[in-house]
Amino acid sequence: MNHLPNTPPLEDGVWLPFTAMRGFLEAPMIFERAEGMHYITPDGRRVLDMMAGLWCVNAGHAHPRITAAIREAAGRLDFVSSFRMSHPGAFAFARRLLDAVPGMARAFFSNSGSEAVDTALKIARGYHRARGDAARTKFIGRAKSYHGVGFGGLSVGGIARHKRDFGPLLADVFHMPLPHDPAQRFLRDRPAAGDHWLAGLDDILAVQDPSTVAAIIVEPVTGSGGVYPPPIGYLEALRARCDKHGILLIFDEVITGFGRLGACTAAEALGVWPDIMTLAKGLTNGAVPMGATLVNSRVFDAYMQGPAGAPELMHGYTYSAHPLACAAGMAALDAYQLEGMFEASAAIAKPFAAALLGLQGAPHVIDVRHCGLLAAVELEPRPAAPGVRGAAVADACFADGVLVRAAGDTMVLSPPLVVTAAQVAQTVDAMARALRAIA
């Protein structure tokens, strides 16, 4: 994707993720500062951030509570290992986090969503082995899902272009269909209930034998794959299938966690609880890298049956429960809870959706999907040139002072929870102008 340059040419050195490096170096997009809802370029131009960084800066940039907490923590305890030792902040943050996410009993800290997912998959297999059911090794993911870039997350993920260059991946991984009907477009609410949505899962279970399946992993709302809300009753039926067959249910809430759906988690907002949940991104408001894998008491207790002197889970990271990350996480929770950000997200979700649905009929727009403060505007690709139109629209919006993300020809939006109605209108106006200008 080519962006308009806003800085002098850069020297080579950094290799950026998910980036066409040669194109970036010809037209780099560089931000020097950020505050509130805006990024600021080196030449002082303010750009409205309608991506919350990368689905993560839910409280807005440079939030004073979080900034102050990181500064204080850095001067008090810069690092301590989590291998056979810890620090008070880890336990305080875990308790606050578990209080905010009912149904979960323990928090295992890592450094990213990718690590949180790989941790969840390992815990799932280990859980069954601890119970004497080591034959349960298979995983079921879902089409269009994104679960990070570790080999485990890539394996259960459902986006082909992410896997293409790195196989073979984990064996015994299967994928159920995305619960989406392309004929249903511009929906005002979630898709209607229907038994057919899980027919693909039933087929997999019939062939593979449910007694060999360790876990099913889904995003409650498909995020990076294009924002697909779950049909009404879908997650409830998925939970019931897992209960019936003794399969663990994993919710990847790296994107949906911390206010995207107007509650701390999508599980709370949608009323369906998993056995394992992964979190990252909004966990620290993106200020310090951190991931968390939460498990319910049933999963944790299964691990606690072995010899008392041996580690129950042979897994971990050097920076698990890093002191600065824990401080940032505590401050982020303070910001979300004390400043009413989840409630603000819930209040603006319907106006946000209504404004974007107003793009129906604009040039090239073939669908608008939304759930809470997540939305996707899908464009008709140019013939034989997929992704080009989406990139051009993103470039035009950036030139107009609004940052949106093009995932191929789908424009994805996930603004900070503090977004205002005026900023939503500014975004829709910029997109409408771009759509009219781009062939």
UniProtKB/TrEMBL annotation:
Gene3D superfamilies reported in the protein's UniProt record: Aspartate Aminotransferase, domain 1 (3.90.1150.10), Type I PLP-dependent aspartate aminotransferase-like (Major domain) (3.40.640.10)
PROSITE patterns linked: AA_TRANSFER_CLASS_3
GO biological processes: biotin biosynthetic process
MF terms (GO), sorted A to Z: adenosylmethionine-8-amino-7-oxononanoate transaminase activity; pyridoxal phosphate binding
Top-level taxon of the source organism: Bacteria
Keyword field contains Transferase: yes
Keywords: Aminotransferase, Pyridoxal phosphate, Pyruvate, Transferase
The protein's required cofactors: pyridoxal 5'-phosphate
Cross-referenced InterPro entries: Aminotrans_3 (IPR005814), Aminotrans_3_PPA_site (IPR049704), PyrdxlP-dep_Trfase (IPR015424), PyrdxlP-dep_Trfase_major (IPR015421), PyrdxlP-dep_Trfase_small (IPR015422)
Family according to the record: Belongs to the class-III pyridoxal-phosphate-dependent aminotransferase family.
Protein name per Swiss-Prot or TrEMBL: Beta-alanine--pyruvate transaminase
Species this chain originates from: Falsiroseomonas stagni DSM 19981
